[in-house]
């Protein structure tokens, strides 16, 4: 009787282990098929819908990019309210499209990812207006996604519980929406990405999920590439969001594999394009040390990365803003010239 009970108890455990291993192997195969470097099996510790590896295996279908109301019209560019589809969600945003005759192949497109702004006060296109303006005047088309749950975008009730991983999906789909659009003035192959703070974390997610999607990344005072740092700095003190996350995923100490597999640094071996990081020494929000670690981990994987420090600069650059923009524009130009 004891033997029979033991066998009955072990069978589900064995089947669960076999299923988990099969799911892991299938996911590795899916990622390889979708393009980009394969994931080493020992890096794929968590198999589930809320993980970067699951996004790697996803087929993205960004589409239906629509230019809506003209929000501004100056001598250099026209600013539009836009919408596009990200999966089943309708996402809002803005586009600045330069005036004049576009270069052969269309205006290069930069995707700007804003930092955290409470959704209750966020408005369309908010967060990087100086950068949007400067780079559009330099001859780049700018797409700034609002992300799900922001401005006029559709709502995702599970967004906070899913540690906002859907923002990565929305940004990737923004790129595909441009690729699939019939807007002839936009390039369908020259793409760059700039992300500030949380948007820098989203950009890091994009660079490992879809390594060949854009040609260069600028990370502006970014969050850590380790999701546990963000958990400790912000989420652990946010009672409402914390309860939603913990009920599904647990703390980093309770389920370290989940947290490793939503951390971009776990998959830095997949990065394929150059990265330029800017960070101020007096950043009151995101630690400069986080950017040191991100740089060093990318270098350890043999990736092309540079970190520019601005002495005395806060989280949003003031005195160094023009230098930051000039270096960023030149960085994008240099990498587009190699295409």
Name the helicity range: 25-40%
Order of helices and strands: HHEEEEHEHEHEHHHEHEH
* Uncertain runs: 1-25
> Main β-sheet, in a few words?
9 strands, mixed
The first-to-last residue Cα distance is 70 Å
CATH class: Alpha Beta
In terms of quaternary structure, the protein is single chain
| CATH architecture grouping | 3-Layer(aba) Sandwich
* Count, helices: 10
Give the overall shape: globular
SSE class:
alpha/beta
- Quote the beta fraction: 15-25%
Query: What do we call the CATH topology?
Result: Rossmann fold
Query: Order of strands in the sheet with the most strands?
Result: 1-2-3-5-4-6-7-8-9
CATH superfamily: Alpha/Beta hydrolase fold, catalytic domain
How many domains comprise the coordinates?
1
Mean of the pLDDT scores? 89
């Amino acid at each position: 009787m004891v033997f029979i009970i033991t066998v009955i108890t072990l069978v589900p455990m064995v089947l669960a282990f076999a299923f988990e291993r099969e799911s892991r192997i299938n996911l590795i195969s899916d990622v390889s098929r979708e393009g980009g470097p394969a994931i080493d099996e020992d890096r794929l510790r968590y198999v589930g819908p809320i993980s970067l590896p699951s996004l790697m295996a996803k087929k993205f279908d960004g589409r239906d990019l629509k230019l809506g109301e003209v929000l501004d019209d100056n001598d250099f560019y026209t600013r539009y309210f836009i919408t596009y589809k990200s999966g089943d969600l309708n996402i809002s945003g803005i586009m600045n499209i330069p005036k004049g005759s576009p270069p052969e192949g269309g205006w290069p497109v930069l995707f700007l990812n804003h930092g955290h702004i409470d959704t209750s006060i966020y408005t369309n296109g908010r967060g990087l207006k100086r950068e949007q303006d400067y780079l559009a005047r330099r001859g780049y088309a700018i797409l700034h996604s609002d992300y799900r749950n922001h401005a006029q975008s559709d709502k995702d009730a599970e967004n906070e519980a899913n540690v906002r991983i859907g923002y990565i999906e929305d940004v990737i789909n923004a790129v595909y929406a441009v690729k699939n659009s019939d807007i002839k003035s936009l390039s369908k192959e020259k793409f760059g990405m700039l992300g500030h703070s949380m948007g820098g974390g989203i950009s890091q997610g994009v660079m490992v999920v879809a390594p060949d999607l854009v040609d260069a990344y600028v990370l502006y005072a970014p969050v850590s590439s380790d999701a546990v740092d963000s958990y400790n700095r912000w989420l652990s003190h946010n009672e409402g969001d914390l309860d939603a996350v913990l009920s599904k995923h647990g703390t980093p100490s309770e389920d370290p594999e989940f947290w490793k597999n939503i951390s971009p640094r776990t998959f830095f071996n997949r990065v394929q394009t150059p990265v330029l990081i800017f960070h101020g020494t007096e950043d009151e929000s995101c630690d400069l040390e986080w950017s040191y670690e991100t740089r060093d981990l990318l270098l350890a994987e043999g990736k092309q990365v540079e970190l520019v420090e601005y002495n005395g600069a806060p989280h949003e650059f003031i005195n160094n803003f023009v230098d930051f923009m000039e270096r960023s524009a030149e960085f994008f130009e240099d990498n587009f010239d190699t295409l």
